[in-house]
């Protein structure tokens, strides 16, 4: 979405693999019911769906009374790419438009990823298929994007990172295969962004990404409004992620073919696509 022009005062503010050591964040489903037993395989008279055949990379959990969806991308299982729109055409502006163009069986999940202007084009650093479409944005200004430090989520092959913009500018010399800039950073080197309070008054549906010490990318989308502080704490305290980046709010959306989830809503901009690696690789 076009970045919010709200004042900083208002800004003070989801995995198939086993999670980091410790007690699970929650054992209940979002609706509070006991998790049901796995559904049996489709009978010959049923029409198989993607959701019945593919294990989900996302899980629903509760953190501090807020329902979240946590999706885990693992380098050995997934590849990550950015998509804005079909080549030579206008931006998709929705996950539904992307879904019409892609084979859902190859997609682990997709999520909006990065702030954008009125046309859906990125306002910060953006790299797609190793082609830089927008240079790094170091300008000052109002709104979430400019709440320094902001940062970049980027990577090539099976190495993915989140770095604060100044860190990226000083230390990343080779162009990555994908990259998207957003802001603010939620967690920087294990510490919560200095402008983010514990549980500020700004409450929205939000999404973010962080990369842990094992190189796994943790994507989170909230299923109810929450503060920047609570989202940052989830990354720092529960996921043990040292660097996490806020992706957007209000327009946050997720496509998870394995659960038939395809969010709709306000127009979006850049899209982070997490694809399944073929079993032969």
UniProtKB/TrEMBL annotation:
<protein>
    <recommendedName>
        <fullName>Phosphodiester glycosidase domain-containing protein</fullName>
    </recommendedName>
</protein>
<dbReference type="InterPro" id="IPR018711">
    <property type="entry name" value="NAGPA"/>
</dbReference>
<feature type="domain" description="Phosphodiester glycosidase">
    <location>
        <begin position="107"/>
        <end position="255"/>
    </location>
</feature>
<dbReference type="Pfam" id="PF09992">
    <property type="entry name" value="NAGPA"/>
</dbReference>
């Amino acid at each position: 979405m076009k970045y919010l022009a709200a004042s900083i005062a208002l800004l003070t503010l989801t995995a198939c693999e086993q999670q980091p050591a410790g007690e699970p964040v929650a054992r209940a489903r979002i609706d509070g019911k006991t998790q049901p037993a796995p559904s049996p395989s489709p009978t010959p008279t049923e029409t198989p769906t993607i959701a019945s055949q593919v294990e989900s990379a996302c899980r629903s959990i509760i953190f501090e009374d807020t329902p979240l969806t946590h999706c885990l991308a693992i380098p050995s299982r997934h590849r990550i790419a950015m998509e804005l729109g079909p080549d030579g055409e206008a931006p998709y502006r929705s996950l539904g438009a992307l879904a019409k163009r892609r084979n859902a069986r190859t997609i682990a999940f997709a999520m909006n990823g990065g702030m954008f202007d009125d046309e859906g084009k990125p306002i910060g650093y953006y790299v797609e298929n190793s082609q830089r479409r927008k240079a790094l944005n170091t300008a000052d200004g109002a709104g979430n994007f400019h709440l320094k430090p902001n940062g970049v989520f980027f990577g090539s092959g099976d190495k993915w990172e989140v770095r604060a913009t100044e860190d990226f500018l000083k230390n990343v010399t080779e162009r990555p295969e994908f990259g998207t800039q957003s802001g603010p950073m939620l967690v920087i080197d294990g510490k919560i962004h200095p402008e983010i309070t514990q549980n500020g008054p700004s409450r929205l549906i939000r999404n973010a990404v962080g990369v842990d010490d094992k190189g796994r990318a943790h994507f989170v989308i909230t299923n109810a409004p929450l503060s920047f502080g609570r989202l940052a704490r989830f990354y720092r305290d529960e996921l043990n992620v040292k660097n996490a980046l806020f992706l957007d709010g209000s327009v946050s959306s997720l496509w998870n073919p394995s659960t038939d989830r395809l969010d709709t809503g306000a127009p979006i901009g850049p899209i982070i696509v997490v694809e399944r690696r073929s079993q032969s690789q």
